[in-house]
Amino acid sequence: MHQIPDLPRLLLVEDSDEDAATMREALELSGIPASLQRVVTGDGCMDALRDAASPPALVILDLNTPGMDGREALTLIKSDKLLKNLPVIVVSTSGNPRDVDFCYAAGANAYHVKPVKYPEHLNNMTELIIYWLGNATLPCRMLEHP
C-alpha cells in the first residue's frame, strides 16, 4: 500500500491582506497542489516553524512586518541548525540595495521586489511558485531534531 505524500506547504509571512490574497491566487494559477499557511509577523513565522510537525517546503517572507520584522526572522531561520536549509524567498516592496544585500548576506535564497501593478505582481508570484515548487530541487529533509 502506498502512502500519499502530504502536500507541500508554503509558509507566507505577510501582513498585507491584499498581498496574501495575491499569493493565494498565484498558488491556484500555478496548478501546483500545495497548501498555504499565512502568518503576519516574524514572531508568527518563528512560532509556525518551531511548532510544525514538519517544515514547510518554502518560506515566502515580507521584510516589513509588525513586531519582529522579516529581517530578524530571516537571520533567526538561517542561524538555526534545524532550519538553515529551509528555502526563504524575500518578497518586499523595498528595492533598497541595503535591504537586498542584507537579505542575501543573511542567507535568503532569492529576493523579489513587489511590482506596483497587480497583474505583474500576480504573474511574478505565480512564476515564483512554479519555479520553487515545480522546477527547483528542494532539500529532501531538514535536519532531525535532537
From TrEMBL:
Q: Name one Pfam family in it.
A: Response_reg
Q: What is this protein called?
A: CheY chemotaxis protein or a CheY-like REC (Receiver) domain
From which organism does this entry originate?
Noviherbaspirillum suwonense
Q: Which InterPro entries match?
A: CheY-like_superfamily, Sig_transdc_resp-reg_receiver, TCS_response_regulator
Top-level lineage group: Bacteria
Q: Which UniProt keywords apply?
A: Phosphoprotein
Chain ranges of the Response regulatory domain: 9-129
Which residues are recorded with the post-translational modification 4-aspartylphosphate?
62
